Every structure is written in C-alpha cells, then in structure tokens.
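Milestone M4 deliverable, item 7.
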Amino acid sequence: MVDLQSRHPRRTPRLRSVGDGELRLHHRVVHGYRRAYRMAGEGPALVLIHGIGDSSATWAELIPDLARTHTVIAPDLLGHGASDKPRADYSVAAYANGVRDLLSTLDIESATLVGHSLGGGVAMQFAYQFPERTERLILVSAGGVGGEVNPVLRAVSLPGAHLMLSALRLPGMGLQVGLFLRLMRLLDTDLAQDAPELVNLVDALPDATSRSAFIRTLRAVVDWRGQAVTMLDRCYLTEGMPTMLLWGDRDSVVPVRHAHGAHEAMPGSRLEIFEGAGHFPFHSDPARFLALVEEFTTGTNAADWSRERWRGLLRAGRPGTAAGQPDTVQNRAVEKDLREASERSAT
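Output delivered:
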C-alpha cells in the first residue's frame, strides 16, 4: 500500500452545506437522448458512476457529505434510471464517451472518477480514452479486471433472458425470492451479502424497455464464460495516476481476488478491503467510504498528464511483454487474465 499522505501535502477543505434542491435529478439532452444526473456542491469535480441496472440513486445518501468539498456529478447512464433507454451502443467505450460529453455540457474539464462495478470499468475506460481529463481513479468492486463474475449474470447474458427477468416479477415470485434470501443468510454465504441489493436492481426494471437496456448492457461486457472485456492489458498506463481500489472481502459478484490482481497490475495503486462487506461496500460502511474518498482526494495531487509521457508508456509496453521488462510481481491468476486480454479488450 502506498503512503499517499507522506507524498503530498493535505489541503484544508472548504466545507459547505448542501440543500435538498441540489440532490434532485437534472436532465440534459445529448445527441438527442435525455440524460439524467444529480449535481451538487462546489470545488474539485467528483464523478460517481453507478453499476449495471443501478442509477445515481445508489449514491444519494453519500452525495451531501461529498458535496461539502466537491462538485459532485452522478449521472444515470444511458439505459438506466431516468435516462433514455434507446436501442443503442451500451459498451464501456460508449459509456465513457457519454460521460465525457455530459461533463463537457456541464463545463467540467477534468475530474476524479469514482466507479462501482460496471461503473468501475467505465471509469477505467474513460481514463484510457481521455487521460488528460482524468485526475484520479477510485474503483469500487470494479468490473473489467478479471474473467469471473456471478453465475446469475452469466445466465442473464444467455438467450431467453427477457423471459427470465419477466418471470421474476410474476405474482408469488417475491415470496419465493424472500425464502431464498433467508436460506442464504442462514447458510452465511457471500451471496447473502449482495442478494437484497441485486433483487432491488431487478425491481428497478419495471418494463420491457428497461429490461432490454439492461440485457444489452450486460451482453456488452458478460457472456456465458464470464466477463468478456478487460482493462488489465492496459493497467500499466495508470502509472502516475492516483488510483485507489475499494472492495468487500465477501463480494459475490466480482470476487475480491480481482482487487488484488488489479492492485498488482496498477503501479502505485492503493488497495482498501472492507471486511464483511459484499459488492456494495459504500452501502455497508458509508462512513469509512466517505473518509477514504476524502483522504485520497485531498492527500494526492491530480494526475499530471502529458502527451510525451503517454507515448513513452505505450512504447515501453506492459511489463512482461516483448516491449517491456520482465515482471516478477504478477501472480499466476493475473498473468492468465493478461494472456486472455487480447480477445477481451474493451477497444
């Protein structure tokens, strides 16, 4: 773990209160599609990117505290929440473009990105596509750094997923799902940590249009074998960019070993594990989450990007490849993912 406090002086934050009106949903039309977002506070920009099937509402309890020292922007990604749900490109690259375009309409030139689950993959893709606009990365139970994923999500990527999701909303299914959740709690499984949140995501898909957008998004990143895209092959490009990984040690959606693999692959990154937490550590322990975000954003300098430095990193290549130097730190699991990266690239 890198001691970021010793490397950079801590600035004194300017605190302010946040009114209820700032937390309401706003809308912008970009490329003809209505995009919803929440925006509050003043100060350095902090962008909160939710996971698949979720919305900016997942951050609602945290925004008032974060907005005391930051300008917080929390979008509903296209196909999610109150944003439009067209038949469109729902890849992580397209989402990164969408975040850039929304920030541009809001006159936000650069920001610290906080991404959860799919949002973590979007945040990494944003940093890859637009490094000059990325100040820091905070990745929370992020997708895109390993192949494994919950078998339920793999199943939903298969044909017939529409019928499966529709069936979960039939009368009587709520009781059966409740009984299943109680069994998971009695068995003290990792799934018990996340099942209520995952059920809420299904409840947030009230109609065929929402379910179609969810399935399109999922199939862009997951297939029957697991996660279908990765950023591991380009993680070396985060060298010099302050990066923090936050993970629950009982994450049933994206296993915590992915956190350790990403930490190894991202030079100078910081890793924080939430003991007993599942896939939503910012819900399990919001106080610790807020403290870590505040400490990290005030205790590190924004990434100092330059075209020459980026060119140098690309020419040197990833450690362990023909262009780079041998890397003895990567463990076998990470190396396996890196070997498969060429067929799971996000670009």
